[in-house]
Amino acid sequence: MQLEHTIYMKLGSAELxxxxxxxxxxxxxxxxxxxxxxxxxxxxxxxxxxxxxxxxVEPAVPALRRPEKRELKPVPDWMLALIRNDPDINADLLExxxxxx
Length: 101
Description:
By secondary structure, this protein is α+β, with helices and mostly antiparallel strands. 23% of the residues lie in helices and 36% in strands. The chain is elongated and about 60 Å long.
């Protein structure tokens, strides 16, 4: 199931709202040893970022302030790579999805 969450990034003096589309792979707890196996370590939950778009809001245009009228523009590749590799953003997405990190 694909989810969406809005994150806020500071770029210079501007704060950008970024709508992130992502999926979550649920983690699993560690399993104890058995006669056949020495046990398995825990695997943490992980968020996979599918896409990210900058949310364009123009305060002078009242229609763009309504959620259904917001304008989305794809973020550049360098920003998408930054979002995908940031552990704090990953944790934020997992928290938004209700997954155990």
